[in-house]
Write a structure and sequence with these properties.
alpha+beta, Outer Surface Protein A, domain 3, 267 residues, DUF2063, DNA binding, three-stranded antiparallel β-sheet
Length: 267
């Protein structure tokens, strides 16, 4: 048997793809351990390593669930999710989706949303860097250009719809203090991004600002954003434009805007 074949058989057994564990016939017994026990040592060490990756990426969720609760979640995730990544950094990224689809964790929107927020913070940390655009760039726009102007936002920016009170619960779990009970009947909107000091931060949004920011992230024009807000609130056009302008000013202050994209044919 070639070394490559032996390695492939060993890997399949470690990953649980060889239910009959045919690899045991290729493992020599030692003076202390039979082949099955020698294999078990390697297999258990591999699972512990994966569980360690999950615990490292989801420290707050671990605190919220407790060690025993998180261990049960990690074991179930490892059983259902063989690692296909050379970079261990990406193994844990699907844990929130797994919780959403799997009992009993899918019974708690609050815990799922703690995992989603923790995942979003990690993704924001890894996002491509870009310099913030100064608000002075708006001075180059003519009044008639405003409806068509678009904005490019920092790659770390993401808007989350979460359980009402999840930010407070997340912060309590991070501090290992008693978690307030989120209101799973209502929503909370959070913006997550990496600021100019390279710190990953978040803040709460109103439903209207969350809608506007999602439209901006999707590449919609300022005019489109205003029209959607006006339709949503049945408000006066001038009042809506002023409100959208206040959102835009805050986005510049947050360092979210990296480019003002002028309408075609303008400088």
């Amino acid at each position: 048997m070639s070394l490559a074949t032996l390695q492939a058989k060993f890997q399949a057994a470690i990953l649980g793809l060889d239910a009959d564990r045919n690899i045991l016939a290729d493992i020599n017994a030692s003076r202390r351990l039979e082949p099955a026990m020698r294999f078990h040592v390697y297999a258990r060490a591999y699972r512990l390593r994966l569980a360690g990756l999950l615990a490292e990426d989801f420290k707050v969720l671990n605190n919220a669930l407790g060690n025993d609760g998180f261990h049960a979640l990690a074991e179930a995730y490892i059983d259902a999710t063989p690692s296909h990544h050379r970079n261990a950094r990406w193994y844990a990224r699907d844990l929130p989706d797994f919780m959403q689809a799997t009992a009993p964790w899918n019974e708690s929107r609050g815990l799922i949303d703690i995992a989603r927020l923790e995942r979003a913070l990690a993704d924001a940390f890894d996002a491509t860097d870009a310099a913030a655009c100064p608000v002075a760039a708006l001075a180059a726009l003519a009044r008639e250009d405003w409806p068509q102007v678009r904005f490019a936002l920092h790659a770390s920016a993401r808007v989350l719809t979460l359980t009402k009170g999840i930010a407070a619960a997340f912060e309590a779990a991070a501090a290992e203090t008693p978690c307030p009970e989120p209101d799973e009947t209502q929503d909370e909107f959070l913006l997550v991004w990496r600021n100019g000091d390279a710190q990953v931060v978040y803040r709460e949004l109103t439903a209207a600002e969350a809608l506007a920011l999602r439209e901006a992230l999707a590449g919609k024009s300022f005019g489109d954003i205003c029209a959607l807000l006006q339709f949503r609130d049945e408000a006066d056009a001038d009042a809506v434009a002023a409100r959208a302008g206040s959102y835009l000013a805050q986005w510049f202050a947050d360092g979210l805007i990296i480019e003002v994209r002028n309408p075609p044919g303008t400088l």
